[in-house]
Amino acid sequence: MNLSLTRLLGAGAAVAIGATALLGTGAGTAVAGGRAHCDRGERDMWSRAGTDVIGHSCTMPDNRRRWYTIEIDSLVQTHYRTSHLEDGVARKETVHDETVRCLGYIQRNSAVRWFGCPP
User: Fold this and answer.
1) Are 72 and 38 in contact (CB under 8 A)?
2) In a designed cystine with 72, which of 20, 26, 41, 92 is the match (CB 3.0 to 4.6 A)?
3) How many CB atoms lie within 10 A of CB 5?
4) Which of 36, 46, 39, 42 is nearest to 94 (CA)?
């Protein structure tokens, strides 16, 4: 292969890698903008982890995004014996400094219902 052609391809690859790195940095900043923080959270656990989290004392993001990252200081997970409420609670577990990703939220007074949070 011609030396100047090799240099040209090398320069093109360097530009492409630099552009990808810059785009990746911008995307990381955009994702960070969808962060929220809650002092306390509650999650019901049935036969598998629930997909909703009720947050209290939350700082909300100021933009409308599709996915949100929520940092929760204390998350109380209530494990039920079966899928029926009347069968009672098996145990409660508190997890500290938990981070969850959720699809969206509904804010009502002081509580925020985060939904679509994969286990």
Assistant:
1) yes
2) 41
3) 9
4) 42
For the chain, the 3-state helix, strand and coil shares in percent, each to the nearest 5, are: 30, 45, 25
Order of strands, edge to edge, in the sheet holding 89-102? 89-102, 68-80, 35-45, 53-59, 111-115, 104-108
In this structure, what token pair is assigned to residue 16? 């492409």
Q: Give tens-digit pLDDT for 77-117.
A: 999 988 888 888 999 999 999 999 999 999 888 899 999 99
Amino acid at 20: T
DSSP state of 86: G
Overall pTM surpassing 0.90 (yes/no): no
Q: How far apart are CA 34 and CA 20, in angstroms?
A: 22
